[in-house]
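FW: tagging you since you asked about this chain on Friday. Here's the raw sequence from the shared folder, copied in full. Didn't touch anything.
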Amino acid sequence: LTRRRWQILTVVLVVVTIVTIYSFKVKPVYEAVTRIELDSQMPEIHSLKDLSESMPIDDTFLATQAKVLESDNLAWETIEQLGLAQNPAFGPDAGIKKGEPIDSREARGRLLSAFAKNTGVNLVRNTQMLEISFESTDPALAARVANTLVNNYVQYDFHKKYDATRQASGWMEQQLDELKAKVEKSQEALVTYERENSIVNVSDKQNVVEQR
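HL: got it, structure written out here
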């Protein structure tokens, strides 16, 4: 070591210089993290008791919601809302080329790949929470993308439950209409039977006479 100290010092100096130059030239990457709590799904309502009960959340439900957050539909909706196709901080190789339509298969594929590469969805252990992260050289952009993705998921979940409620309401209205028709048909049959058999309903009159 003593004989080769100058060679060692030279190598160390060269390595430190290269690493320093590389560190100054490379842009820092920021990660924005947001968390969302998942509520349990409402059970199928068969009685009034079911209104106050909720279904327990299992690992399958959490994994399904994580896949929804990673879906191309939510990713593309976020890309369009924030105009990421024209933002160089989103992905240098994913931008739209001159004259290329944003909805072309090639452009859409590049944008979705860049979005998935920088997005992370993880389950927080022993909780009902999902952690959504997004990486970018622009910290403000990273925060906007993470928050917008979560907001789009919330809207998706709301519309899904709303549609399910509308379908259930429509089914119940149909059942009520059928029951109403059956009651009306039964009443008509009763009136017809009474008329054909000369039966007179005098219960009200009898009550008046008994009271007197």
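FW: Helices lie at 5-25, 59-69, 72-82, 105-118, 139-196, 203-211.
HL: agreed, and The beta strands are 30-37, 119-123, 129-136.
FW: great, closing this out.
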